[in-house]
Write a structure and sequence with these properties.
alpha+beta; 3 helices
Length: 138
């Protein structure tokens, strides 16, 4: 099991988006089923069809990313949709690891809505994986 130090920072730093260049966030999504670490390691062709390339900043919140997913994945617009976010990254041995970053409701408010990429210790070059759960609410 891969574990990465993901301590929450008490104070979020503000970012002037007009003066800071965004970075490319490669986000992969799937409905009702999680992607596996093996799919990322094997560069599975299925991933290509489920990828969204977003330009964003480190102060982007999970709710903000959820709203962007809705533009590409109709399932994310459903009233009962719940999106689980995971960070996919390579450890120091080159193996992919997966950490849960938070859960956001498509419509409504939740405790992880304002968690930002910088707070969850996301590093440029990591991938984000999202599972869009449209089955009955958890």
């Amino acid at each position: 099991m891969c574990i990465r130090d993901r301590k929450m920072r008490k104070k979020q730093t503000s970012l002037d988006r007009s003066k800071c260049c965004p970075f490319l966030l490669r986000l992969f999504y799937k409905e009702n089923v999680d992607h596996t670490v093996k799919q990322f390691e094997a560069k599975d062709k299925e991933l290509e069809n489920e990828e969204i390339k977003l330009y964003t900043w480190m102060d982007a919140s999970l709710k903000e990313i959820c709203d962007l997913i809705k533009e590409f994945a109709p399932a994310a617009k459903q009233k009962n949709a719940i999106i689980d976010f995971y960070i996919m990254y390579r450890d120091h041995h080159g193996k992919f690891c997966r950490n849960h970053a938070g859960t956001v409701q498509s419509i409504g408010k939740g405790k992880d809505d304002f968690v930002t990429l910088s707070v969850m210790n996301f590093k440029i070059g990591d991938f984000m994986d999202a599972t869009i759960n449209t089955n009955a609410a958890k």
